[in-house]
Design brief:
The chain is built from 13 helices and no strands. By secondary structure, it is an all-alpha fold. The longest helix is centred in the last third of the chain and has 22 residues.
Length: 255
């Protein structure tokens, strides 16, 4: 498995497209993303590649000024490789190997290594251990939400389930999109669950207990996955009703 940053996985994807041996850009992308062009699945997967670029840009801004400024100069070129706004992807004169030159990809890999050295153990470069447990916890939450009897609004419930399913999908596709995307989406899901927790428990203490136990389990998995506490910290900010429980989880993890 390649290193855990978004930039490493973006580099791996673009390199695989370039080295696919295909006669068209589109054929290279279809081969690497393993989805039919113009299908909903292809759109979803290519959107994740764009997300990897977006995360890379965010993480570059976390670097020291000199490194940040040096690599930000390449961002427009990396964006052009991912989007190819002026190219006909199905043009027989545009072989996949022409999608990017090696120097440009080398700069992307160098940026990835710098990001890793600066953000290792954080959400931006998680250590990553037990993804199966991450997936299991998300599935458990989906079941809890599906059994909810009106404690939370149906629209919010559907949104939460969608977020959790996306985390599971990212776990299933970790070899393509990487650990940083999983960590980021898990963080968002935890924040959303923490906010929704305010709607639970006022009239149903037993249900609130189920939510708290499940919430703490998911936070524990995410915190251990990152080997730090960025996910926990964001969740505390998002859900004041569970601050005490989360603090206990953090203490247990760090002890």
């Amino acid at each position: 498995m390649v290193q855990s940053t978004a930039a490493h996985h973006l580099h791996a994807i673009l390199t695989r497209v370039r080295e696919s041996g295909k006669g068209q850009y589109v054929q290279g992308w279809v081969s690497v993303l393993d989805a039919e062009m113009s299908s909903a699945e292809f759109c979803k997967r290519h959107a994740e590649v764009v997300n990897l670029l977006s995360l890379t840009i965010q993480q570059l801004h976390a670097l020291p000024d000199r490194s940040r400024d040096r690599f930000m100069r390449y961002v427009p070129a990396w964006w052009n490789v991912v989007i190819q706004p002026k190219a006909n992807w199905a043009d027989n004169g545009r072989a996949a190997i022409q999608i990017a030159d090696l120097d440009l990809l080398d700069h992307l890999e160098s940026a990835a290594d710098i990001i890793l050295s600066n953000l290792a153990g954080s959400e931006g470069a998680p250590a990553g251990t037990d993804l199966s447990e991450m997936s299991r916890q998300c599935q458990e939450w989906i079941e809890i939400l599906e059994m909810d009897n009106g404690n939370i609004d149906n629209v919010i419930k559907s949104q939460l389930i969608s977020q959790l399913r996306h985390v599971i999908w990212l776990v299933e596709n970790v070899e393509i999109f990487g650990e940083a995307r999983i960590s980021g989406e898990a963080s968002r899901a935890i924040g959303s669950l923490a906010q929704a927790s305010a709607m639970v428990g006022e009239g149903d203490p037993e249900r609130a207990g189920v939510w708290k136990r499940a919430f703490m389990s998911l936070v524990s998995v995410c915190a251990a996955f990152n080997r730090g506490a960025p996910v926990v910290r964001e969740s505390i900010e998002a859900g004041s009703t569970l601050v005490g429980e989360i603090a206990n989880v953090v203490q247990d993890i760090q002890s």
